[in-house]
Amino acid sequence: MPGPRHPRREPRSPEHPGSSEKMARHFPLPLEEVAHQAVGLQTCLNPGLWLDHFTEWEERRGELKRAEASDKRQRIPRSFNFPELCQLLSAYRNRWDRMLDALRTQNYIVQKFTLRAASRVIVGLGAESVLETSIRLHRIYGFPIIPGSALKGVTKEGKNESDPVFVDIFGKSPPESQAGKVIFFDAIPANPANLTLELDVMNPHYAPYYQGVAPPADYHNPVPVFFLTIGPGSEFLFAVASREKHLAERAREWLIEALTEIGIGAKTVAGYGLWERW
């Protein structure tokens, strides 16, 4: 049986554990785990672990309470330009490239390209999370990714579903079921040197009104909701593949058009989620 919870306090900076700027951090851990976790908590560079597992707490009126979400997001590492992370991302990209090479040997036509975020991008804002908002990060390594399912979905927007090319690319739903002939791959970071996470905020002023308990009024207090985004200038690799060359090329054209004109993820109507060539 685990022992009693103990508020573990660890110093750590917002950007890197080796920085001279320190902040007190509290983690409720079993007593027998405190000594073992000291090194790991000081050196962890995985934003996914900080968001999903290292939930901070603070002492208020003699009790442990969860720390403010804004504090937690401000303190996680938001740059990936560290030797450890550069090596990790490079190895992951190599495996991603080898996967595409393997498909080429099976007579797939692979269309690979790179785009740069023209604005802040937030994918997975409403996903399940221990906090109010979330962001889609690689489950193991913690860097941001864009799921192929999301890319496929945004590519379909505004298209004529009766178009034979559309049907060949995306398939058909029942009762006339038909599998699509194009694979949309997860987009991954292309360059850790310019990959960043940026903190943003929504500030709803009429929370009781949105909750349906009161009419909107000027005396309501704003309730800031902090969330993380992929920073502008971050470069990502995208890829689609098909055994039919014209379908792979058309899917690539439609995907680039969707990303540069519509955007992907949350808050696209506010200008988020747009990409650009350079």
Automatic annotation (TrEMBL):
Region of interest (Disordered), residue spans: 1-23
Domain CRISPR type III-associated protein: 114-274
Keywords: Antiviral defense
Gene Ontology BP annotations: defense response to virus
Keyword Flavoprotein: no
Ranges of compositional bias, category Basic and acidic residues: 10-23
Family annotation (Pfam families): RAMPs (PF03787)
InterPro entries: CRISPR-assoc_prot_TM1791, RAMP_III_fam
Name this protein carries in UniProt: CRISPR type III-B/RAMP module RAMP protein Cmr6
Record organism: Pyrinomonas methylaliphatogenes
Lineage summary: Bacteria, Pseudomonadati, Acidobacteriota, Blastocatellia, Blastocatellales
